[in-house]
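re: ur question from earlier - yeah i can do the single chain one, its not a big deal. heres the input i used so u can compare w yours
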Amino acid sequence: PVMNGIEMAKEIRQIDKHIPIILFTAFSDKEYLFDAIHAGIDRYINKPLDQVEFFSTLEDILQRLEDEQMAKAYQQELLEKKINKVALDTLKQTTQIYPNPTFIYKQNRLYFINQAAMKLCQFEKLDDFSEDSPHIETRIVSKEGFLKTFFDYDAVHVEKNRILWQLSSGRNKVFLLYKQNVDDLEIFSLNDITRVEYEKQKSKYLLDYLFETLNKIRSKKT
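and the output i got, formated as tokens:
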């Protein structure tokens, strides 16, 4: 109540430079129009009200707002894609120098494997790998006490996440599976524990043999 429309528009512009302002006035002189433009008025409608002009003006304003929102969303999408690409490229470079075979899945589909995984799968070059390569997890031997797929991973009992992997030579290797999630990516890494498992089995066999021998000696003495 203490200022006119032009003054109020100037005050609004101090707070928000982008909010649309439509001036509805009986004044039509050039000086007033110049002040309105200087104040940042978006549209200028003379009295008496023309409904067609008024709703057409509203439609233009709303269309402009929608276009601005779409442009902003598009720029945000481009920025996110750029950031994601940089992050993925960094992730790929990092896994390439990682010595353990690493498999990256995206939406349950194989997305990337590092050099160590290529060697394990016996791919000679990166071109041999594709997202649809069928013989990646077919190398996993289904056996009691071992995981059947990467996705059977147990986040609670991590020591149980053992994988029995068959090489093309027919030999089996034992791996302990580790998993990490990065956004919509699932990263599986294999740690070779074949030697440890062999030593455990060897110790078990020797212990069983020892007890069997002691029982035989004890039986003979009896």
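The helical segments are 5-15, 30-38, 51-96, 115-120, 194-221. not sure if urs matches, ping me
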